[in-house]
Amino acid sequence: MKNKLFILFMVLVLSLGVTACNNSKKVSNVEGKHNIVATTTMIADLVSIIGGDNVSVQRLMGPGIDPHLYKASAGDVSLMHNADIVIYNGLHLEGKMGEIFENLNSEDKLVIEIASGIKEEDLIISENETHDPHIWFNVLIWKDAAKVVRDGLINFDKENEVTYNENYEAYIKELDELHEYVQSRIDELPESKRILITAHDAFEYFGKTYGLQVKGLQGISTASEAGTGDVSALADFIVEHKISAIFIESSVPKKNVEALQEAVSARGFEVEIGGELYSDSLGSTGTDAETYIGTVKSNVNTIVDALK
Ligand SMILES: [Zn+2]
User: Fold this and answer.
1) What angle, 0 to 180 degrees and rounded to 10, lies between the N-to-C axes of helices 255-266 and 228-240?
2) Is the pLDDT of residue 11 over 60?
3) If 0-12 CB within 10 Å is exposed, 13-18 middle and 19+ buried, where does residue 22 land?
4) Is residue 167 located within the same domain as residue 251?
5) What is the pTM of this model?
6) How far is the CA of 273 from the centre of ligand 1 (A)?
7) Quick one: which of 26, 182, 246, 247 has the fewest CB in 10 Å?
8) How far is the C-alpha of 289 from the C-alpha of 283, rounded, in Å?
9) What mean pLDDT is predicted for residues 158-182?
10) Helices 41-51 and 139-156, interaxial angle, to 10°?
């Protein structure tokens, strides 16, 4: 019943939007730029870089917002409806927005799912048989994401193909450098210290790509609660492997990680909180971590400096 009401609500919201923007067809906003809505900070950053001066990007979620739990407001829905292009991650990262994307897809609008351009063999299947959505922490996968955005923009705006290609090529070079930087920092850690313990399972791609064993206190979605069993088993693991640091995440409350730290302490071993990692959003605007590249660097520096 709740579901039906929601659909009815959405139909109303969307049909209002349709009437409002029938005259504006697939053109641009006032500054002559393509109006693009991206769900997460990572995607908004990517689209701004590839789109350059030709796009105006609005993001639904700011820094520190958890996409697994994010519910789109009526304002968000109308923003998406009025956009030229909507771009989202997919693989259920935006766990509460599936129906909205389906509705947008049925309209005459360019809706791009980043995950649609990622090779199946690069995706990680998690314990519950679903795809792990945290694809941005494999920098090589993010290069494919850049390609998805480039192709989408060219498809929409063929006239500026050269610009989108140039922006893409330049960014790919930066991503290649980033990939090497991350690997070189991880390589500073002796094998026995390459264990990353965080608030939730956002770093499986990172671990698989750069050679770290990863354990999250919560599953791949923050929608699942960490049980006392998880805390206890992980505390035993930390003591057994003499792990020096565990990490909190900017988009997940830190109480679970603190409970883990206490459980370790109760076993007569001390583990420090090694710092805050950006998992499902980039860092705050105005900091070094406000871009994707800045965020990935900040994370690897925090991890390596604390575990060394
Ligand atoms: Zn996550």
Assistant:
1) 50
2) no
3) exposed
4) no
5) 0.88
6) 19
7) 26
8) 5
9) 98
10) 60
Domain count, the chain: 2
Cα 100 to ligand 1 centroid, rounded to whole Å: 20
In terms of domains, do 298 and 270 share one?
Answer: yes
Q: What's 248's domain CATH number?
A: 3.40.50.1980
Lowest-pLDDT range of 170-179, 187-196, 247-256, 266-275: 247-256
Burial of 171 (0-12, 13-18, 19+ CB in 10 A): buried
302-306 long-range contacts, CB within 8 A, separation 24+: 302/247, 302/274, 302/275, 302/276, 302/277, 303/186, 303/196, 303/212, 303/247, 303/274, 303/277, 304/185, 304/186, 304/188, 304/189, 305/274, 305/275, 306/244, 306/245, 306/247, 306/272, 306/274, 306/275
Q: Ligand 1 centre from 262 Cα, in Å?
A: 24
Residue 233: domain span: 189-307
DSSP secondary structure letter of residue 279: -
Taking the centre of ligand 1 as the mean of its atom positions, its distance from the CA of residue 266, in whole angstroms, is 29
Q: How far is the CA of 92 from the centre of ligand 1 (A)?
A: 10
- End-of-domain residue from the set 152, 180, 208: 180
C-alpha 123/C-alpha 116 separation (Å) is 11
Expressed in angstroms and rounded, the spacing between residue 94 Cα and the centre of ligand 1 is 9
Domain boundary among 154, 180, 206: 180
21 band by pLDDT with thresholds 50, 70 and 90: very low
pLDDT at position 9: 54
pLDDT at position 22 over 70 = no
Cα(249) to centroid of ligand 1, in Å?
10
